[in-house]
Amino acid sequence: MAQGSAFLVASLKPWSHPGLAPSAIWALRPRPSGKIQPVNVHLSPTLPAAKRLSGFTYAIRNIVAEAKKVERSGRTVRYLNIGDPVAFGFRTPLHLVEAASKAMRDGHNGYGPSVGLAEAREAVAAEYTSRGMPVSPDRVVLTAGTSEGIELALNAAADAGDEVLVPMPTYPLYTAVLHRIGARAVFYRTDPAHGWLPDVEHVRSLIHPTTRALVVIDPNNPTGAMYSRGVRLGLLELAERHGIMLLADEVYGDLAFDGPVAPIASLAPDAPVVSFSSLSKAYLAPGWRAGWLAVGRSDRLDEILAGIKKLADGRLCSTVPMQYAITAALTGDRSHQASFREALRERAALTTDRLNAVSGMTCTPPMAAFYAMPRVALPAGVTDEQFVLQLLHETGVLVVHGSGFGLPASEGYFRVVFLAAPAVLADVYDRIATFTRSFLGTRH
Ligand SMILES: Cc1ncc(COP(=O)(O)O)c(C=O)c1O
């Protein structure tokens, strides 16, 4: 076999096969006699991508292609689809910019350790410890944003066929990564009538022997929810009792309107919890791809930690100059967060007031972050995506349909990012109101 392949490579000389197109050369096969013979195959003009990618979807960005078309037709698009504060004028704190650029000027531009620089890992460990989740630096791994932490932890935890409990609606990276692994996302509902909280008993009913992990996004994207102490304790107890890992996505932990929320593991420091966060949201630097994960102190997590480190070796390291900014962020001034939280609180109130005033629309008030998940009472047979696309085409307002976050398309949810200036948001909500009246009016 190896001999045959070597022969084939050695024989790929287009000039030795006059009349064959270069692509046909690849269809030549060595025969046992050692001579090569053209094989009659139908060559596709493009090379097929792996089939499993069909289930890897990320609606928040996928929908942008449609918005670009609308833009090309001459209409201004209001991009309320992506949670990037910098795109809406919020500025990265200067001392972080200085730390990253100084690191580059000082020549810290080579590879770093795959787990991250010791100084930054110490800063992350000290941060968690001071907030009630005691963790040592050797249980911290620096990652390319929260996103890579999610990838590493899911890959370390789940095999093909395993199950992972994921909130519905969810941040779509979880389902996308699980699909790629071949593991199954099992949804637990969260309830808009109860502040988008999960029902712990319902979560319990979904646990099977193949359940490997429970994903908890608190504070939550896409709903803006913040979980109560009772719910948090209930979820921790499930993880403890059933021996499943709790993956705590805490990237919005500093952006609850009433002030920072402690990591969930602070309520049970020995529970099997892995926490993720980054500089993307609360430190206003999403483009830096600078994040971290912290593996709780329970020795039940030692194998998972070793697995995460093994996978981290394979991708060399996360961005090194930005790791200097992580240290600066966690040990320096955070006063920007107070004004950012106030700006978010104001925008959240505007969003809820204006959308709840639209007939046929309801919106549960967000408590944190910069997302709201309103619902429009769609007529039978109409999907959330149809609503969102028509809204885009007729008004230029881009939001993301709830089914992009795992909700049933008939339920009529969509996610709004409310980072824009209040005056812009007021205009957007006027457009949504006028459009919704006409959309529902013409269909009733
Ligand atoms: C819940 C949640 N987790 C993870 C991420 C990814 O964040 P990062 O930029 O840190 O990778 C986001 C980004 O929107 C998010 O909302």
What does this structure look like?
- By secondary structure, this protein is of the alpha/beta class.
- It is 39% helix and 15% strand.
- The structure holds pyridoxal-5'-phosphate (PLP).
- The site of pyridoxal-5'-phosphate has 13 residues, from helix 7.
What is the overall shape? Answer: globular
CATH architecture of the largest domain: 3-Layer(aba) Sandwich
Radius of gyration: 25 Å
Distance between the termini: 67 Å
List segments where confidence is low: pLDDT < 50 over at least 5 consecutive residues.
Answer: 1-19, 22-26
Query: What percent of the residues sit in helical stretches (DSSP H or I)?
Result: 25-40%
Task: Count the beta strands.
Answer: 17
Structural class: alpha/beta
CATH superfamily of the largest domain: Type I PLP-dependent aspartate aminotransferase-like (Major domain)
Major β-sheet, in short?
8 strands, mixed
User: What is the CATH domain class of the largest domain?
Assistant: Alpha Beta
What is the count of distinct domains?
A: 3
Q: Quote the CATH topology of the largest domain.
A: Aspartate Aminotransferase, domain 2
- The total of helices stands at 15
Q: Strand arrangement, largest sheet?
A: 4-11-10-9-8-5-6-7
Question: What value does the average pLDDT take?
Answer: 91
Write the layout of secondary structure elements.
Blueprint: H1 2-11, H2 22-25, E1 28-30, E2 36-38, H3 59-62, H4 64-72, E3 78-79, H5 94-105, H6 118-130, E4 140-143, H7 145-157, E5 163-168, H8 173-181, E6 184-191, E7 197-198, H9 200-205, E8 211-217, H10 229-242, E9 245-249, E10 273-278, E11 291-295, H11 302-314, H12 320-331, H13 335-356, E12 361-362, E13 371-372, E14 375-376, H14 384-395, E15 397-398, E16 400-401, E17 414-417, H15 422-443
Parallel strand pairs: 3-15, 5-6, 5-8, 8-9, 9-10
Antiparallel strand pairs: 1-2, 4-11, 6-7, 10-11, 12-14, 13-17, 16-17
Helix pairs in contact: 5-12, 6-12, 7-8, 7-11, 13-15, 14-15
The protein binds pyridoxal-5'-phosphate (PLP).
